[in-house]
Amino acid sequence: MTGKIARRQLGTNGPSVSAVGLGCMGMSDFYGGADESRSIATIHRALDLGINFLDTADIYGPFTNERLVGRAIRDRRAEVLLATKFGNMRSEDGVFLGVNGRPEYVRQACDASLEREGVSVIDAHYQH
Fold first, then answer.
1. Is 84 helix (H, G, I), strand (E, B) or coil?
2. Are the C-beta atoms of 36 and 6 separated by less than 8 Å?
3. Has 31 been annotated as catalytic?
4. Reduced to 3 states, what is the DSSP secondary structure of residue 3?
5. How many angstroms from the chain centroid is the CA of residue 4?
6. pLDDT by residue (tens digit) across 45-68?
7. % of the chain at pLDDT higher than 90
8. Distance CA 20, CA 8 (A)
């Protein structure tokens, strides 16, 4: 890839993010087998190219994608705008349990995502 990655500012005073983000869903779920080392290498390559917007969700895996992304960015957190979603609930075995946007659930989902990702801040947390 040549050239510079286009950037966008979020809001009036928000952070600058790459116009192209990396959706990490397929690295853990929905499209067949997952290869953690290749997935982490893909995330690192995206960061090397200037892509700083990474998108994940608690439902992916379920729960394993946030852990994967957390491992990938552990030493590169300052380079990332981390977005994670909540609201579509799944059990550990993947069964869909419904949609939940109640405030108490949002707080619970946020705390769980922070722990799985191994970060102190989620930059964009929004309902799926």
1. strand
2. no
3. no
4. coil
5. 23
6. 999 999 999 999 999 999 999 999
7. 89
8. 9
CA–CA dist 93, 38 (Å, integer): 24
Q: What is the DSSP string of 10-38?
A: -TTT--EEESS-EE-GGGTSSSS---HHH
Amino acid letter, 73: I
What pTM value is reported for the model? 0.92
**41, 5, 39: which is closest to 20 by C-alpha?**
5
Residue 17 neighbours by CB under 8 Å, 6+ apart:
7, 8, 9, 10, 52, 53, 81
Q: Is the dihedral of CA 42, 30, 116, 98 positive or negative?
A: positive
Q: What 3-state class would DSSP assign to 67?
A: helix
Torsion of CA 110, 113, 117, 118, to 10 degrees: 60
